[in-house]
Design a protein that fits this description.
Chain lengths: 311, 258
């Protein structure tokens, strides 16, 4: 009888050991940024720049003040969907053994000439959420441009950049800009929201579409001009952008007058009551429930409505 | 009608399965134990008949160690009515012959009209237990069925042969074994999982199915030595310098493949 031979590789270095220098390095970088920003603000030239560009680009004439109720709904649906999209997308990427597979019934409203491909249940969930998210986004775009709310998040003047630089400097020096989000965002916010709504979201859709089964496989010239590898290389970083945006966004919402900010977005009012917070808390409860219930056992019956769920 | 489905808990084939080389037995801790997939299909065959025929009882029967209950619960959550677990310390390391004798005794104890088994387990891969059980019970046996048709007094099916297919049928009671072409197993749904917790799971010892632990009649085989399969060696790499074709041909010839 032969003794079992060990095939384990030599123990790797402790994976946490890098934290020993990463954490102090991060603190040092943060301190350096804050000190540099504070130092800069002492310079007369910078001070006059801050006076000339306080951080808010003036809105076009006729821009609406405040937020309508539909924006609250749109925002909530969007946050719920993006949460589940990011999670299911990550599952598509990391799962090597899907819990089930889905094959669309090629009958009913969506009928294609080709045979529907068998996809994992995770991918089915991701794509279904995507469809809802795109629908929600389309409604959002229409309402945004129909009501003039677009002026709040689309820069209309080049001075948005010096204003944004000014706001960034104010954040970095820990002397944060005080804007009134009900009337106008600071320019850094405008750029961040514009990037998210009009650059990141379309990028996520067009790259996701390229990777999906809906994209024509035989479109030779189109597919050479826009290879799937390019879409893959962009789709994931876009997700990282969304995640980073969400973290920073929530942090700043809560750190710059949470009750008032939550009232703006969730209760369509400009005061410091608890209504917005209550709706926000309820929306968190819905998101948590959706997160917990998004399991194969509950997804399978839903998926079975439009297709065949198999092993 | 009472249909008994023979099931077995096996190490998940998706992971690296291990043999305890000292004991010569499966290392059950090495990877997740699951209900063998072929048994899920066998159960599906039974459940499909029950779906169309009220008054049918589907019983799961398994012989195995403690943890087997989880595999039985899985089968119950798919829709089986009752589970029977033959558990006895005297059964550790049972070979095919001993397993079949125990299952046959258990079947006599539970009673049945039809016994459905998978054609072979994914761990042992013997593929003879159903035939041995049928022999013990003195019943007709239809093996390796790709399709099954159950009716009131008979069971019929199709089995593939080297040159085509064979339609076979037998009067009940009978024992059949099915292949993975027989049926696509259903998923347990939420209601099924909740209901499974309340369904009866009967644990029987050898004495309770009327067998003396030292029962005679079955010679026992035991593993004498076991060794881990040696790691694969790297293959031969051929770089094409104009003679790759010849090298390939030489390689195939030396391996007696052409």
């Amino acid at each position: 009888m032969t003794a079992p031979t060990s095939t384990k590789p030599a123990p790797a270095r402790n994976r946490w050991s890098r934290l020993v220098w990463l954490v102090p390095a991060a603190i040092l970088v943060l301190a350096a940024v804050v000190l540099a920003a504070k130092g800069l603000r002492e310079l007369p030239a910078v001070q006059s720049f801050l006076t000339a560009y306080p951080g808010e680009s003036e809105l076009p004439h006729g821009a609406p003040v405040g937020f309508p109720a539909w924006l609250g709904w749109q925002h909530f649906l969007n946050s719920l969907l993006i949460l589940l999209i990011i999670r299911s997308g990550w599952q598509v990427r990391t799962t090597t053994r899907p819990p089930a597979y889905f094959t669309r019934n090629n009958t009913g409203p969506i009928k294609t000439r080709g045979k529907p491909a068998k996809i994992s249940l995770h991918l089915w969930f991701h794509l279904s959420l995507d469809a809802l998210w795109v629908l929600n986004g389309a409604v959002f775009y229409v309402l945004l441009f129909a009501t003039g709310q677009w002026m709040r998040i689309v820069p209309t003047n080049w001075d948005v950049f010096p204003h944004a630089a000014s706001a960034a400097l104010q954040y970095a020096s820990l002397n944060w800009p005080v804007e009134n989000g009900w009337a106008n965002y600071n320019s850094l916010q405008v750029l961040a929201y514009f990037t998210t709504v009009f650059i990141a979201a379309p990028l996520a859709i067009i790259t996701g579409l390229r990777m999906s089964g809906a994209w024509p496989k035989d479109a030779g010239r189109l597919n050479r001009a826009y290879p799937i590898e390019l879409a893959r290389a962009i789709h994931l970083p876009v997700m990282f952008y969304f995640t980073a945006f969400i973290i920073v966004h929530i942090t700043l919402v809560l750190a710059t007058g949470a009750l008032r900010n939550l009232n703006h977005m969730y209760a369509a009012r400009d005061d410091t009551g608890w209504a917005g917070f209550a709706i926000f808390a309820a929306s968190l409860a819905v998101m948590t429930a959706a997160w917990i219930l998004a399991k194969p056992i509950f997804l399978r019956p839903i998926a079975s409505l439009t297709g065949k769920v198999t092993r | 009608m009472k249909i008994v489905v023979l099931v077995k808990q096996v190490p998940d084939t998706y992971e690296d399965r291990k043999l305890d080389t000292a004991a010569g037995l499966v290392d059950r801790g090495a990877c997740e134990p699951v209900l063998d997939e072929i048994n899920e299909r066998a159960l599906e065959v039974a459940l499909r008949y029950r779906d169309g025929n009220k008054g049918t009882e589907v019983v799961l029967l398994s012989m195995g160690p403690e943890g087997t209950a989880s595999a039985l619960r899985k089968g119950l959550s798919m829709g089986a009515d009752v589970a029977v677990h033959v558990l006895d310390s005297a059964l550790s390391g049972a070979d095919l012959g001993r397993t079949a004798a125990v299952l046959a005794a258990a079947l006599r104890a539970t009673g049945f009209d039809l016994v459905i088994a998978g054609n072979a387990s994914t761990d042992g891969g013997g593929g003879v237990v159903p035939a041995m059980v049928a022999e013990h019970l003195g019943l007709p046996h239809l093996t390796f069925l790709d399709a099954v048709e159950i009716s009131a007094g008979t069971v019929a099916g199709v089995r593939a042969t080297e040159h085509g297919s064979l339609g076979v049928h037998a009067l009940l009671p009978a024992v059949i074994s099915v292949t993975e072409r027989s049926a696509e197993a259903r998923f347990p749904n939420f209601k099924g999982i909740l209901k499974a917790k309340k369904k009866p799971l009967q644990v029987l010892s050898l004495a309770e199915i009327g067998l003396d632990p030292a029962f005679a009649g079955a010679g026992r085989s035991a593993v004498v030595t076991a060794a881990e399969r040696p790691a694969r060696t790297g293959g031969t790499r051929i770089t094409d310098e104009g003679t790759a074709g010849e090298q390939l041909a030489d390689f195939l010839a030396s391996a007696r493949l052409i």
